[in-house]
Structure formats: C-alpha cells, structure tokens
C-alpha cells in the first residue's frame, strides 16, 4: 500500500477491482508503468486506460473494500491457539476469507494452514511477468508473516493437510492435529499432468514458488522453450516467454490454439498474434513422452513419430482439484468440492469451500473475479450474520495476450454457431444467440 497520504480533501485512497482478472487498482499506488503516478484518483483515469494485466478498460472495474487491518494483538498467544476458524490454503481465496472475517470480527481465532510460505501475490500476473521483467520479489505483494500479523491470524506455513475428521472437527496436518469450530477449504487446484509427461523434465506454473524456479532458469539467457498445451495459460505463457527473448514452440492438440473455447475466426486471430511475436505453433500435436538428450536438452516425442528438442519444457495441460483429503472425509466431490451454490457450504458440517477447488452443479469455478464475493458469503456464514448469499454468474474471460487480446462474455456453448457482428483488420466481434437472445459474445 502506498505511503503517500491524500491531500486533495477527497478522503482516503480507494481501491477498485478488475472484474476480469481480479487486479486491484489502489489510488495511492497508481499505475506508474501506464503513466498514472501514485495518488491518481480512479475518476481521473483516462477512459482508454487499460488494466495492466488483462487489458480491460476502467468500465470493467468496480469499487473494492479495503483490506481489514486489526490492532496489534494484545491477547495471550494461548488464546490464539484455541479452536476457531481453520482455513486450508494461503492463495487469494484463503487470505480473502481471513480478511473478510476480520472486516466483521476482530476477535474470532483464525488459523491458516498452507503448504507454501503464505506470501500474497496476484496469480494472473504469473503468465505475463517474465516479458515485463518482473522478478519473484516484485510479484510478492506481502510476506505471509506480515499479513498474518496485520490480520491477527495464526499462520502455519510449509504444512500440508493430510486428514480430515468432520465428526471430531479435527484436521490432521504434517505438524500435528488442529481442532476447529468452522473449516474453510481454499487449497486450490493442481496442474493436471498427463502420464506421458515426466514431472522431473517439465515445469508447471501454478503458483509463485513454481514460477520462481522457472524464472531462475530462464533469466540465464535466451533458451529454446516448448510449451505443451494451447489453452489460455499456455497461450499467455508462450507469448510472455517470446516477448522475453526466448525461442518458443507452442504445442496444441487442435489445429488452432484455444480451439475448444474460441470460434475459428477468433482462434486464427490469436494464432496470427502469437506468430507476430515469434511463437511457433505446432497444431494437432500430442506429446508421447519426454526424455533427456545427450546434449542436455529435453527431447519432446510426438505421437506422429516426430520430435523436437528444447532446453526448457513447460506443461500447461489444465488443472484438477485434489480430491484425496475431501473424499477420505466423506465430503461430496464432483469435478471439485461440491458446494451449495448460495451458501458455499460443503456436505460436511460447518465446512465451507471456495475458489479453484470447488464445483457448482458439477462445474469447476476457476475464476478470480468471484473470490471476493465468495469470501464475503463464507465470512458472514461463519459469523452467523444475514447475507443474501452467493449468486454465481459467468465472469468475463480475458485472454492476456497483448498481440491478440480477446474478451469472452456470457456463457458460450461449444456446439452453438457463432455469428459475425463486425470483422475488420482492427476488430472482430462475434456472438451466440438462443431464441433470439444473445447468450455469449466476444471481441478480439
């Protein structure tokens, strides 16, 4: 947060949330890289300003409540360790719940258990950070210990949850067993790595720790990089790595990148944009295996009998919510932890879940934008306070490829036809309709 104090008589600095990617614009910090110095009020931002992460304009931002801050803890440490709210996961979801609870109640004990160090960072930045010259330290917005002290939270870092007993209200971890009165599962999703890919030979970029390792390898100098998977993350990473000076080959299962989501016209625009920044695309390419080459490179063997060599391999082959912990506890699981669509309660007593690890009506909910609203619902549910509940709506899907930015709105249906509304060298607009009503639209 900015150390600059407001002097314009308009009150404290305000924050605004990007509905597309979850970036928070803080008036006190501004956006210096885009020409907005610290202290730039949101109302004074030019209308053509773009989100530095995903590229949407200021009309796609909404007011965001500032994070909670509690007074220095004066109660005994032993009191902090009594049963209370236990949160599993220190990503954006876990910290958002802790902050939402603290905004309403400064005294309920909160324990946050995480397999990482608990650092706060903005996950969407991982796929665009290298091309912008951002280091791991630059991405880290706040150390876990600092955030825990600010919120009066007991942080148990580098610790894995290994067992859950809903009847006994206990969570077994690699550092002992914790009792809870309410439990929040916010442990996210993990890379879904096909059996053909040796995890020792490829990077998976799903958190700051993994990205930091990849960053350390790539900053040594230009390298030949193979990115496996041409979905959203694969396309974003491929462009980012190419902009950072690496020779990138993007391997996709379809003839065009992101072909499962985009209509052909939009996918072709995306391909042309990637090629303009130097990405080489190999479509209809299924990877049969990885092996170490005699020259230190990694050999990527393809199903058609061909192969290619790369110094670095990155797998962007999708995500899967881990199920062992919840299934062993008898909680309902359907492509994610099944939750009530209004209260975000799981099938277990006083157990809530949010973020990448959940599913609603059998569909995963892996979006940044809803997390703040999900956290508010859970916080009020834990505290027993009235709340209208969570209402899930499809957020804007924004592909963060600057060479060919694409925004997808609504609820697209893969089998439904797309209609061209506008097509020119500068812009493509398309839409899907059902019974005369537009149900999805895109701009590229």
From TrEMBL:
Pfam entry (one): Pyr_redox_2
Cofactor: FAD; Fe(3+)
Keywords: Electron transport, FAD, Flavoprotein, Iron, Metal-binding, Transport
GO molecular function, one term: oxidoreductase activity
Pathway terms, separated by semicolons: Hydrocarbon metabolism; alkane degradation
Location of the Rubredoxin-like domain: 13-64
Transmembrane segments annotated in the record for this chain: none
Similarity annotation: Belongs to the FAD-dependent oxidoreductase family. Belongs to the rubredoxin family.
Function: Involved in the hydrocarbon hydroxylating system, which transfers electrons from NADH to rubredoxin reductase and then through rubredoxin to alkane 1 monooxygenase.
Name of protein: Rubredoxin-type Fe(Cys)4 protein
Native species: Methylorubrum populi
UniProt lineage: Bacteria, Pseudomonadati, Pseudomonadota, Alphaproteobacteria, Hyphomicrobiales
